[in-house]
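[Automated response] Your request has been received and processed.

Submitted sequence:
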Amino acid sequence: MKKYMKISLNKRLNAISLAAFIPMFLVMLYLLVSLSGATKAYADITQSVTYANQYAMDFKERMDNSMYLAVIGKKSMEELGDGETTVNGIVTVNPYEYIDELSAACDELSDMATVDINRNQITRLKNSLKSLKRCVSELEEGIKGKGTYQENMDYLDENIYMLTSLIQSGIQEYIYVETTNFDNVRAGLDAQNARTFTICSLISLAAIIVSVLLTVNASRSVTRPIQKLCSVTQKVAEGDFTIKTKVENTDEIAVLTQSFNDMTQEIGILVEDIKKKQENLHIAETKLLQAQINPHFLYNTLDTIVWLAEENKKEEVVSMVTALSEFFRTTLSKGRDFITVKEEESHIESYLKIQQFRYLDIMDYEIDIDESMYGFVIPKLTLQPLVENALYHGVKNKRGKGMIRITGRLEGSDMVFKVIDDGKGMTEEELGKLQNSLKKDKSDRQEDGFGLSNVNQRIRHYYGESYGLSFESRENEGTTATIILEAKNIQPFV
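Generated structure:
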């Protein structure tokens, strides 16, 4: 069986076909031979009986009638050979020629005989034909003048008629013996049919057993490795790239299994590389986030502090420097990617305080975040880009003073943050472009911030596709940016 397992799957399947085909072919061949033998036996008997019947019916009548006409009409044998039809419908024959014809037919019947005893019968028939021919010759001499009419008639009755009766009986005996051989052939055929049935049953049973064994073996050699491969595949799908399935055979399934093992190993190496690259990417992203401060924002803030110092507004200077310090402290946050909601609130409040010194006449702000959310952590710089966007693209472009309102609420197992401004708003076309940009995989670094699409991608990266950023806006009415996060202390991927 081990040697069989080394055979390829294709050859094993072919072996199953041969195991069923070859025995069936042998059975069919045996049946054809048996059938042809029986058919030939019946045909031989039928041929011999039919041939013998041609003479059994006519020989005695034609010979007796012809010889009778020769006696009463004193006709020669040649005249009888003209084939004259008598009153009773019998055609006359030349006795010598007719005897020779039957003698030749006896040779044919001897060859056709299916029973040995009939060959002996043919030998007796030929002897009788010789005697008949001799008697015809003697009667012919009597007809020519050596015998009287009565003597010739007596000779006809005592010799010719007796011999033709004997010959006809011999032919009929030949036919009878051949006919009885039908029963022997039929009995032999019945016995042969019984043997054929037994042999066919045994061969068929053996073919079925061998085919079933080969099929079960081939099926197991395919299904078992595939089942193991499916089990291993499931574990690989769960992230275990170290597992391997054992290669037991040397067939096509073994090649597939070995290829799967090699592929799993390669995937494991690639996953490790991706993890390392992902770690490097997050490190770079963190550094980029830390350095994301718009230079103009820093320059303008420092200019404002200098101006306040020159005006000797110490309290405003202290407030500005404190806000800027808090802003940078949160931005850096000791290299952490995640900060608490409370820290994110302090960060955007520091940013808005700084901006309010510059845009006192055009901007007010309000922060209303539920204190029950303070303990949850969120990705750093989640809200600040939205607040910056609301200021520079909403309130700043509005005539008159504008309001930026930041809210945060728990809704079931989710945290929902909103950054609402009553600024310029967006047209439907502008809103559509913004929504399309959020679907892009790559982030855009814009002059006024790190990019809203980056915020959306980071959220989906950490929380899944069901979370993220969305916008609602009406032209000249304002814009609402909504962020939905899962309320849990999620940790960053490293």
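Summary generated for your ticket: Confidence is low (pLDDT under 50) at residues 1-5, 443-450. The chain has two domains: 2-213, 291-486.
If you did not submit this request, please reply to this message.
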